[in-house]
Amino acid sequence: MSSVARLHEIAAELCGDSVAGEAGLIDHELLELMAAHEVVARAVAARQVRLAGEVGVRSRSELGDEGLSRSQNFTTPVALVAKVTGASARACKARLELGRTLRGAVLLGGGEGPAPFPAVARVLDQGVLGVEAASAIVKQCSVLADRGCSADVVSLAEETLVDQTLSCRLTADETFRAAIHLREVLDPDGAEPRDEVLQMQRSLTIAQAPDGMYRGTFALTPEQGGVWMSSIRAMQSPRVVGPRFVDGDEYVIADGRTQTQKNADTVTELIARAAGADDMPRINGAIATVNVHMTLDDLEKGRGVGWIDGIDQPVPASTVAQLRCSSPIAATLFGDKGEVLFHGKAKRLFTAAQNRALAARDGGCVWPSCDRPPSFCETHHANGWVSDDHPPGRTDIDNGVLLCHFHHSHLHKSPWKLTMQEGTPHLIPPRWVDTEQKPIPTTRRRTIQRPAA
């Protein structure tokens, strides 16, 4: 039986295994079977790399139209391998690069020189080292070679990483980190030039798409990425200083945002907070300002749309209301004749002292079952800033309520209502939740009035 026929037979046997039978395995049997399949997968992956490497050698540029890929009417060996295997171009490129790296250089007479990484090649062919780990070792050892390290040093690094990976049973990620660490130990002077390359590659591009969304790409240096990630984690962590109270109330609105949506909201909040800081640059004495155009009639009735300067797509009235309510970036609202209806931040947002008082009263987001502490919250006007009870300019503690960004946004866009009764925030559910729309008190007080003796 030919090798090709035997491989098809093995594939058919594996595919014929009962998937339903896995549910009947006990734990250690399941793990053993998974490990056994990984052994098979490593052996197959090693052969894929070797075969791709051979395709790469037979398709090298100096062969011209006689090369394998061009003779098969493919412009590159990556395209040829992808067509034959059905794998992605990215995966095929990785196989080709590793396969060619593990082979010796083609000599003038057509022969092949010594393999540059014999230790990796040996354990890869034996199926005991995975392709990802092999790629990590080869890449960092190649960096050492390119930096001028001697062949003995590179060989020592290769053997050390192979032994460490196999003896310590490292995962591919752990092997990658070990390779980075060893590279720095053997070539400490290489950090500076590598950092210069990374510094030149840092970038941020952002532009508005036709649908109104802003999209872009970015590349951060390690220290910039550290600042971003530590700030994001700090903002998103539930383990922050401050009181928090969790209510078992049935009226719960779950935070359905994806992690990427939370990241976008967090970075936006960080920028907004920084823009409103006292030491931020001012333009004509003013902080960063978002100019929103909306008619007075639509503003009062909470309908229609607003138009933000520099953005072609409109925003709904609920977004305008939320921006006016608590945004650290000032919002200037214009009427239909261009007159300034109000300029937000200077006169209508709650002061730091008021917010501290609200934190003491509410203990964090007042929405039932939300555990966000005061540091994660925005201050919402229970009765609209423009209303009979609270005319423009009156921003009082008895009209302020703490809400996290998610529930604040939800409140402005949902049929839920929030009002103040005897100095306590109350949520009024929509009729489909409670036909009587009975107000729900929300503040988690830590002190109570004791009954008279």
The run of helices and strands is HHHHHHHHHHEEHHEHEEHEEHHEEHEEE
Report the principal-axis shape: elongated
Radius of gyration: 32 Å
Give the class from helix and strand content and strand pairing.
alpha+beta
Average pLDDT: 79
Strand content: 5-15%
Major β-sheet, in short? Answer: 5 strands, mixed
Give the helix level as a range of percent.
40-55%
Strand arrangement, major sheet: 5-4-3-6-7
Number of strands: 12
Termini gap: 97 Å
Could you list the spans in which at least 5 consecutive residues all have pLDDT below 50? 240-250, 344-348, 445-453
Q: Count the DSSP helices.
A: 17
Describe the fold and architecture.
The protein is built from 17 helices and twelve strands. The chain is an alpha+beta fold and 453 residues long. The strands form four sheets. The chain has a five-stranded mixed beta sheet with strand order 5-4-3-6-7. A three-stranded antiparallel beta sheet has the order 10-11-12, with no helix packed on it. A two-stranded antiparallel ribbon has the order 1-2. The termini are far apart.
Helix-strand blueprint:
Layout: H1 3-16, H2 27-58, H3 68-71, H4 77-85, H5 89-102, H6 118-125, H7 131-146, H8 151-167, H9 172-186, H10 191-201, E1 203-208, E2 214-219, H11 222-236, H12 259-275, E3 289-293, H13 296-301, E4 305-308, E5 315-316, H14 317-326, E6 330-334, E7 340-343, H15 344-348, H16 352-362, E8 377-381, E9 400-404, H17 405-413, E10 417-421, E11 424-428, E12 440-441
Parallel strand pairs: 3-6
Antiparallel strand pairs: 1-2, 3-4, 4-5, 6-7, 8-9, 10-11, 11-12
